[in-house]
What does this fold into?
Amino acid sequence: MSRARMSERTVVLAVAAVVGVVIGVLGVWAQNAALVGVNYDDGIYALLARALADGDGYRLTFLPVSLPAIKYPPVYPLSLVPFWLLASSAEAALFGMKVANGVYIGLAAGLFVFLLTDLRILPVALAAALALVGFASGSMMLVTASVLSEPLYLVLLFAALWSADSVPVSPSVRRLLIVGLLVGLVVLTRAVGITLFVAVTIGLWSRCGRRPALIAALGAAILVVPWLVFTLANAALIPDVLVPRYGSYVQLYLANITDSPWAALDIFATNVGAVLQTLGVKLTSGLGPLASSLLGMLFVTLALLGSFRVFRVGPATAVYAWAYLALISVWSFPPFRFVFILVPLLLALAAVGALGLAERVASGLGRERRSPGRASLVRYAVLGVALLVFANLAYRETRAVSRRVWDGAELQKSAVGAEVIAWVRENTDPGAVVAFEFDPLIALHSGRRAVPNNCQPVHVWYRRNVPAVERLAELLQQMDVQYLAVRRNVPMAAAPIDALMARYPESLQLIYITSAEALIFRTNLDALKRQPERREAGSASAGAALRGAEN
It folds into this structure.
């Protein structure tokens, strides 16, 4: 490496470190008093780490029946085990996990800057500016302020992309295996990381040939295949009534598309619309759904143009964003959390696309009209519009962070959950089984066994018909649930319980209402075995049965 190149890399490392520290400090500052478990997956990760620390294996030990955790890849829970082993209390362990996520997001931001600049995708100043705006955002802090796997996923993702795109044209087997192992770690952190496997394989194949791509794929398979075998071997052990929450992703997807042959197309159209609107609203506010979607489409188009230019220097980085978007467009989960963590990379690709578009338009005008002055004017106009959009984005994200927009819903859910937890601790015996919308929250903070309080085989984001009442009745019976809690003022949460009480009027007896308006019922499992009411579960208006029980 030449002296000039070494000096340049030193500057890059210094800027990346500064960005990483700034975002890391912000990530730690973003932590709040919300209980771990109000985001569901965060409670699962903490409980899995505790099971591993206690020597119970990779199992969901808080359920009435201990089950293998086939839905949740193991890398992130494994990273949390030391907190349970070293912390002085459960509260200290959970707080340490949240702080670690703040550190992870800073490390991810620093690696992002290094990736863009070391591969010469963008100048260092522009890369730093994009990283600061992309990571110092309300949506990014939303997934950082909880014990969620996204921050660690981003750390491993950018490390893997740099490792793949910086290999020499004739890499050694050892280097390729390292690339593959990094890819495997990404996949085992979040299942959506399988898109990185696709991107790295395509990138190495196009850059180095088939053999290097296959060697790297072998390195990834060394880690991923045992997990796939574990998942497939244990999928049949998950009771049908728990598959919607704890079954494999394949089981969940099949459940979502079996309603009709058009279900997959409906999921795709719903997700694509949500992705485009999310990106459009991210760039500017106050627009309607159609205008937001069009703006999101323009953003995606610029990013796609940038990907063609980036492919020459970073093929895996260029392909990854589109493999990722393709998967979340057809996958049967609301795409919002998935989109949030892709925004920094899309911003970088769109910046490359805007720069390239400005140069291409200016070059075309210069050749056709032989007017260099006019060509320069058009180029500066395109760049000026892009800069205004970026400045507006930076302003809006700064305001969102200063107002801590992620605190509102999280703290509200946490307050409701805290009251339910307090009642459960004081009024139930240690062996009781409690059903709640956030069952990991109950299990983590009360020590009781817990299950979901609904059984929706199809995610509510896509479901068009009434809740699955009979399946919920089966869930309560099979899991021997003694108590059920529900957030009355949240229609999506209350609908399944309302439908159950309409079909089985004596199945739930209201015994307590918290100050945050959560209802706690004592279950009558014998009533669920009787002939249900003939009226349809959806005939009662939403909330009617709950209001009747309260009265």
Q: What stands out?
A: Residues 408-550 form one domain. Residues 372-402 form the longest helix (31 residues).
